[in-house]
Specification:
The protein is mainly alpha-helical and 837 residues long. The protein has 5 domains: 64 residues, no CATH class; 249 residues, Na+/H+ antiporter like fold; 219 residues, no CATH class; 41 residues, no CATH class; 135 residues, Sandwich (Jelly Rolls), CATH 2.60.120. 76% of the residues lie in helices and 5% in strands. It has a 4-stranded antiparallel sheet. The chain has a 4-stranded antiparallel sheet with strand order 2-7-4-5, with no helix packed on it. Helix 8 runs antiparallel to helix 9, helix 9 runs antiparallel to helix 12 and helix 14 packs antiparallel against helix 15. It is globular, with a radius of gyration of 33 Å. It starts with a helix and ends in a 7-residue tail after the last helix. Its main location: membrane. It is a multi-pass membrane protein. This is Sodium:proton antiporter. It holds the Pfam family cNMP_binding.
Length: 837
């Protein structure tokens, strides 16, 4: 094939891609539908010119178009990894883990139900054997992730709902392709219908192998990218190789799902990358992948559409009835998922409620595209598949794809409009009025400064100021007089605005290098939770999300288990240092928000709302201070090290700003600026390194602060520190249950615990102990102990506690005081304990 013609065709395809986006906007149709239609028209035109006798001038171009080496492997190995990888980079992986149950249930159940529904329906009405019919079911179960994601982003759907649907659409293809590979093996080898055991036996390798492969390849890539982070283009090049290596390794070396490997690799990079790469490098990486995915998505649709005339060459009239069966069966399966499984998950509190209009939009927006055609093409390329099966698979998959693109795609906006999903919700409409009013007030202040600085004409300024003032008064009046906004809604709007300001402050601090990139994604995720919680649950939701951000997650508990049982301290030390740094950053950010409440929210929502938000913010600051004080008590001196690091990084940021200002003023040249920035970058790299946290040393210091152990010598303190284990508990968590067997004594390092029994309560704080009475009386515990704030407890087993009681007079005195406080006999408790000599 002439290289000039091929180059011309490729360049022309990019022209088509460039024209398709504005054309789709003008016609108000999905972008993928326009690309598919253009691809079909190009193939039809090439076929026409090749067969017509009107002219032979375009025959070489037509032959080149129809002879393009479009194979299924081109889609599966070149384009699909790019699309999936970019989609996962744009997802909040940490937030996705919050909803992993509905995502997995919807992805797996949706594909299985659709495959079985289509497969058994076709087996009943067509000459296809059951295994071939199930193969068709797996093929048409693949959705177009980019189309689904773009639909929900255009709907301004609730973020959590959009996140669940995005995750489901990505994993949907992974499961469908895995089922396709399984059924295709039976069809190509002519084996009998697979049994349930055959199906289930393949699942662990397909999914588990894909997950492990994707994670290993991504971690290796991140390590390389971090090592080469100073070289601007090196991390970008490594990221381009990552999805392809993950896909090939999973498919060819492990025999697992390459799609799952790519999805896991993308999620891993999105979680780890921001903390290992400089912010500018991570931003460039995201920009590059957005462009690559745009080109790949457009090319895959056009090239797949070029295949449609070829796949439909042998269509018969009776085949249209079978296409109708596929449409009905696939739609029925989707209805079962959306109107059966989703409501069930909501009742079980595993998924947020999905309103009926949204479910209808999901149903009608399930477009099929290039992946479906690529899988059908893979079947037609196999010489082991019988001819009639190849023909029917190609026609049914292509026909169903055309139905979703032409019928559903062209009417999707009309359906969305009829459902009312193109309109802002009442609260969002009210929020838009608040935004306009706040923006115009800020503009007025800045405009007054500008006119004063430039000494403009008095009459001109007065005339324009009057016009702008009239518009501002009207905007403020509309915002204040909105009758549809209840006081509860005003509080919700204020909380949303406050959480949004917190998020903006975090982003600004990350850019200024005062918040480390490794924590950026986590604190931004906490801010997103606040926004969603305020929008869905108002004041209660905001408080719950704020409280959850200070709690100890499952990762922390796992790290404690590794530390206590296996002696592996690295993970706990890192997470504890992360918590230190996050709390310090959160305290600074929350203190910056007072000005936002008084300067902006009060102007629109009034004094009562602003005072309420100020009170909520004050409680958050107090909770952060309490959690931070607890860590200071546990690890004295470490907070000061982090604060010194913050001051050094702030000084470097101010120094960088001064150099940039001098360059803009012409005081220094570009060469000198470059040298200064290089020196500053070296010092910043040193300042970014976080001081290590030695848990063993810190625990000894912590034990030394307990008055209970003041009469122990240095060796005794060290032995006690080694014998103690650490337990972190959230507010409301039960530490010790009533009637449980006594095994341990608890010492409160930070926080507070409440003991309850028969309507009586006792509250204990830092430095106190509980659980010793049941051990000394040899009776089941009479009290239930519950943490009332996030607390850190030191736990000592019974044998060590008895030995410690023998050595420490101070501890015995504490036991006596505690027993007398509860009406017990101290002498009876301690009669078996010999005094230390």
């Amino acid at each position: 094939m002439d290289i000039v013609i091929v180059t011309t065709i490729i360049a022309s395809l990019f022209l088509v891609i460039g024209a398709a986006e504005p054309l789709a906007a003008r016609l108000r149709l999905p972008y993928s539908v326009i690309l598919a239609v253009l691809g079909i028209l190009i193939a039809v035109a090439a076929t026409f010119f090749l067969r017509t006798e009107l002219t032979d001038a375009l025959n070489p171009v037509a032959e080149a178009i129809l002879s393009l080496p479009i194979r299924s492997n081109v889609f599966l190995y070149v384009f699909l990894p790019t699309l999936l990888f970019q989609a996962t980079l744009g997802m909040d992986a940490r937030r996705m883990l919050d909803d992993w149950v509905p995502v997995l249930v919807l992805a797996v159940v949706a594909v299985v139900v659709a495959t079985l529904s289509v497969g058994y329906a076709l087996a009943l009405v067509s000459p296809l054997p059951l295994v071939a019919a199930l193969l068709v079911g797996a093929i048409v179960s693949t959705t177009d992730p980019s189309a689904v994601i773009s639909i929900f982003r255009s709907l301004s759907a609730p973020r959590r709902l959009a996140r669940i649907i995005e995750g489901e659409s990505l994993l949907n293809d992974a499961v469908a392709i895995a089922l396709f590979s399984f059924f295709a093996a039976f069809v190509m080898l002519g084996l009998p219908n697979p049994t349930l055991d055959d199906t289930l036996s393949r699942v662990p390798l397909l999914i588990g192998g894909g997950v492990l492969t994707g994670w290993i390849v991504a971690r290796a890539a991140v390590w390389l990218m971090a090592a080469f982070a100073r070289h601007e283009l090196a991390p970008l090049s490594i990221s381009v190789a990552l999805p392809y290596l993950a896909y090939i390794a999973a498919e060819q070396l492990v025999g697992a799902s390459g799609v799952i490997a790519v999805v896991v690799a993308g999620l891993t990079l999105s979680m780890v990358g921001p903390g290992r790469l400089p912010p500018q490098a991570w931003g460039n990486l995201r920009d590059i992948w957005d462009l690559l995915a745009h080109w790949a998505g457009a090319l895959i649709f056009i090239l797949a559409a070029l295949l449609i005339p070829r796949l439909l060459e042998e269509v018969r009239f009776s085949d249209f009835a079978l296409i109708g069966v596929v449409v009905l069966a696939a739609t029925a399966a989707r209805v079962v998922i959306l109107f059966g499984v989703l409501p069930l998950l909501t009742r079980l509190r595993l998924s947020p409620p999905v309103e009926r209009p949204y479910r209808v939009a999901i149903l009608w927006g399930g477009l099929r595209g290039a992946v479906t055609l690529a899988l059908a093409l893979a079947v037609t390329e196999s010489f082991r598949v019988p001819v009639e099966i190849k023909r029917l698979v190609a026609i049914l998959a292509t026909g169903y794809t055309l139905f979703t693109l032409i019928v559903q795609g062209t009417t999707l906006r009309w359906v969305i409009r009829r459902l009312g999903l193109d309109q802002l919700a009442p609260v969002d409409q009210a929020l838009s009025k608040q935004v306009i009013a706040v923006a115009l007030q800020t503009v007025r202040e800045d405009l007054a400064k500008t006119t004063a600085n430039y000494d403009l004409g008095h009459d001109t300024v007065r005339t324009e100021a009057k016009r702008f003032g009239d518009r501002l008064d009207q905007a403020v009046k509309q915002a204040e007089d909105s009758t549809e906004i209840l006081d509860r809604d005003r509080i919700t709007l204020g909380l949303i605005a406050l959480a949004g300001a917190e998020r903006d402050t975090i982003i600004a601090r990350v850019r200024e290098h005062t918040i480390s990139p490794r924590l950026a994604e986590q604190v931004l995720s906490d801010a997103d939770r606040l926004i969603e919680a305020a929008r869905s649950g108002g004041r209660t939701g905001y408080r719950t999300a704020a409280r959850k951000s200070l709690g100890y997650g499952w990762g922390f508990r796992f790290a404690v288990i590794l530390h206590n049982r296996l002696g592996i301290s690295y993970l706990l030390a890192r997470l504890t240092a992360d918590r230190f740094e996050r709390l310090l950053s959160q305290r600074l950010i929350l203190r910056d928000l007072d000005g936002f409440i008084h300067g902006r929210i009060r102007r629109i929502h009034g004094r009562r709302v602003s005072d309420l938000l100020h009170d909520l913010l004050g409680r958050r600051v107090e909770a952060v201070e309490t959690a931070l004080d607890g860590l200071r008590l546990q690890y004295p001196g470490y907070a000061e090290e982090l604060e010194r690091r913050f001051i050094r990084r702030t000084a470097l940021r101010l120094e960088e700003r001064e150099y940039a200002t001098m360059r803009e003023d012409g005081l220094i040249g570009e060469e000198l600026l470059t040298a200064l920035m290089q020196d500053l970058a070296a010092r910043r790299a040193a300042a970014e390194r976080r001081p290590p946290l030695d848990l063993a040393l810190q625990r000894t210091e912590l034990v030394r602060q307990f008055a209970l152990f003041e009469d122990l010598d240095e060796d005794g303190l060290k032995r006690l520190a080694r014998g103690l284990s650490t337990r972190y508990v959230n507010a409301g968590e039960v530490v010790m249950r009533r009637d449980s067997a006594p095994k341990s004594v608890y010492f409160i390092a930070s926080g507070a615990v409440e003991l309850q029994n028969a309507g009586q309560t006792w509250r204990l704080g830092r430095g106190e102990m509980f659980g010793q009475m049941a051990i000394l009386t040899h009776k089941p515990r009479r009290f239930e102990a519950r943490a009332i704030v996030p607390s850190t407890l030191l736990v000592l087993d019974e044998a060590r506690f008895r030995r410690l009681l023998q050595r420490s007079e101070t501890l015995r005195d504490a036991v006596r005081a505690s027993s007398e406080k509860r009406g017990l006999s101290a002498d009876t408790l301690l009669m078996d304990q010999p005094r230390s000599g």
